[in-house]
Fold this protein.
Amino acid sequence: MAGQQLASDVVAHMMKNDFFSQWMGVEVIDIRAGYSKIKMVIRKEMVNGFGIIHGGIPFSLADSAFAFACNNRNNLSVALDVTITFTKAVHVGDELIAEAEEIHDGRSTGVYLIHVRNQYNDQVALFKGTCFRTGKALIGGTSSL
């Protein structure tokens, strides 16, 4: 299976079974090996008691982008370490776009930077994630190690 098709198929499989990303309303914009770009719109049930988005929402969006980017070569990968910095408040109706870019593709680990931006292209969060690669395939029975 070609790399681009494999990446798309893996993410489609993940989305089918990712009920949390579905609840958030995540839409996949672009997928390629080691990369993902997704978006969502903020709803009122995602706001905290201060009237701004709960920090778990941009974290979760970035985490989904991270998961799609580090798994799309069909090598089951899990988070080993993640950090996030919130840089701008987010409100109901805002559209968030998370773009995950691979900065290290090792045999057993990968490192990714995920920029979360709003509809005005303002960065609202910066997420860094390190994954551990298990060597197990998500689809089709064999990993592309």
